[in-house]
Amino acid sequence: MQFCEEAETVDTSRLNKRIGIKTTVICPATEKHVKKYLRQETFLINETEDDYRSITLPHITQQSFSVQWVYNILEKKAEADRIVFEDPDPHVGFVLLPDFKWDQKQLEDLYLIAIVHRRDLKSLRDLTPDNLPLLRNILEKGVEAIGKKYNVPSSKLRMYLHYQPSYYHIHVHFTSLDYEAPGCGVERAHLLTDVIQNLQVQPEYYQKRTLTFPIRADDALLTKFREAGKI
Ligand code: M7G
Asked: What is the pTM (predicted TM-score) of this model?
C-alpha cells in the first residue's frame, strides 16, 4: 500500500491475477485513511435509536470522511468516462460505475457502486418509505445495466448497503456473488432487497431498530460508545 500527498483523492486498485496481489493507492491519505487499512481488532456495537441520535450522529457530523469524491463523480468532474449507467432524475436518479476495488479485468470480482444524485441521505438510518422509489429504481435499473454491459444476471449479484459506511452519502454496492468482497459479511452488509422490504413492512424501521455494526479498536466512535458506558 502507498500513500502520497499530491493529488485529489485517487484510489486505484490493481489485481494481478498471476501473483494474486491487490494494491490500493490513496491520495492524499489522511490519518483516518491510513488507520482504515491497518489490521485492527474489531468489536460489535449494538446501536439503539437513542445511541444513534446521541452518539453516532454527532460523531459522523463532525468527523466522517469527505464525500467530495462522490460530488466530483455526480458532477462529472471525475470518472465520467467510467460511468456504466446514469439516471439523472434528482429524486430517484443515480450514477452506476465500477468501484475502485475492481480493475474490470475479470468478472469474478465484479464490483460496482450506485451513487444517488440526492445529497440529503447519509446512511441507512435516514431511509424512510419516501425513499422506496429511489431504492427500487437502483435495484431495477442497476440490475438491467449490469446485465446489458457484463451479461451478469441478478441471481449472480449481491446488492447491499453498508452500516456503518465509510462515506455518508447513500450508495449501493453491487458485487459478484462469487466474490467475497471486503465488508460483505452479515455484520456490515444490508441486502438492498431486505432494506426495501423492511421499509414496506415498518415505515420507521431504520430509525427505530437497533442496528449492529463492527467497529475497529482505533475508531473514535468506539471510544464514544465506551465513554457512554454502552460497551
Ligand atoms: P462504503 O460502504 O462507504 O465504505 O463504500 P467502505 O469503503 O468501507 O466499503 C464506499 C465504496 O466506494 C467502497 O467500496 C470504495 O472502494 C469506493 N470508493 C471510494 N472512493 C474514494 C472511490 C472513488 O473515488 N471512486 C470510486 N469509483 N469508488 C470509490
From this structure: 0.88
